Amino acid sequence: VDLADCSKKCTNDLVKALGESKVAGKSAKANASARGRKSGGLAANTVWSKFRNQLGDLMKNIGETRTRYIRCIKPNTQKKPKVMEHLSTVDQLRCAGVVAAVTISRSAFPNRLEHEEVLNRFSALLRGFKPEAIDNGEGGLTYQPEVSRLLIDLLPTPTNDDGSLGKAPFVAGKTRTYFRAGSLEHLENERVKAFGMYATVIQAQIRGYQSRSMYAEWKLSSIKVQARFRAHAAQRRYNNARLACITLQCWRRQVEARAELKKLRENYRATMIQTHWRMAVATASLKRSREASIKIQAQMRGAIQRPIYRKELAEAIEEAKLENQLKSLQRKLEEAEAKRIDAEKKAAEAASESASTKEKEVIVYRDRPQEAAPAAPEPAKAVEAEAPPPQPGQLTEQQQILMDESVQAPWSERSASSRL
């Protein structure tokens, strides 16, 4: 979106036209889709529409990327998709000056990174360094001072043989940092070394933690073994004493249980006799109550469903009558339409015959009219006045009568049914 806005504000006519075509392409796609939906998809796909759609897709892809330099290159001379001719592409890049521009940019500052990426990658090399964003005075934030402070400590300016300062190994711009040849490689090597040192420290901490954890586990295991052995000895003494107590209790409970069993057997037999008698009485009462409830439910359901059935039956009969009347009216309307078409055909044939008879009349001119006897006038042919044929889309008198009957018939039948 930002790239499209910038292209609209550009003074170059070509770039400005490309930016406007992107917006026009989107609106044209929306209009074309709407027209296609309205007209059933019969709109033709012209060469201009294809070019406009391809140009809109290209601008969309460019807008989604972070491009800084755009150059159009033809991948092949056959104009085929997914075909790449390397020699032709290299020649186009060389002729356009892209190779020379890249060579020149690499000769001074071959490497460049954004400020945020520099801080993320190399801030770990300086212990205690905490970057903070600074207001740039334009309503935004910048990291340029923090990047300069970091890289001055990491990349000091070299000195020449005569003691003077050499060229700075980096230059911090507004949004990017430019590195001279070898500077970024030096930082990457230092970063790898720092990560190796940090990895060693982390490994030492982890190994110490593992050793301490293992010692604690061994100590806990030895304590558990001793506790298990002591518990086993105490449990064995307790089990022997418990077994003796259980034997005495068992003998006492057996004596009491035999007396209780004898009493329960006597009570059980009496209880079973009472239970079977009560079950027989309750079963008979349940059967009678169930039969009575079934009869009551059947009577109630029949009373509820009979009016509904009568109402639906009456509605079905009325609908069947209306359908039969509608079919008869449609048949009459079709017959009237056929009669009207036959009448139109006959009227057209009569009109064509009258026109042909008028064309056959011949007028004879003579050289000497004074010698010839005056001819008797021919009797005028009576032409029957015919009614003008109905205009297309206009109903005849018979059709209008049938339509009036079809409209009045359902209302009269409904009023009669309502009276009934």
Describe this structure as you would to a colleague:
There is one protein chain. With 420 residues, the protein is mainly alpha-helical. The protein contains nine helices and five strands, in the order αααααβαββαββαα. The protein has helices at residues 2-9, 13-39, 47-64, 86-96, 98-108, 115-122, 144-154, 183-359, 397-419; strands at 111-114, 134-135, 141-142, 170-172, 176-179. A three-stranded antiparallel sheet has the order 1-5-4. Strands 2-3 form a two-stranded antiparallel ribbon. Strand 2 and strand 3 (141-142) form a beta hairpin. Helix 1 crosses helix 2. It is flat and about 130 Å long. The two termini are 75 Å apart. The relative contact order is 0.03. The model is unreliable at 36-43, 362-387 and 409-420 (pLDDT under 50).
Low-confidence stretches: 36-43, 362-387, 409-420
Provide the succession of SSEs: HHHHHEHEEHEEHH
β-strand number? 5
Structural class: mainly alpha
> Roughly how many Å apart are the termini?
75 Å
The helical percent reads over 70%
How many helical stretches?
A: 9
Main sheet summary: 3 strands, antiparallel
Mean pLDDT: 78
Strand content: under 5%
Instruction: Tell me the overall shape.
Output: flat
Radius of gyration from the alpha-carbon trace, in angstroms: 55 Å
Strand arrangement, major sheet = 1-5-4
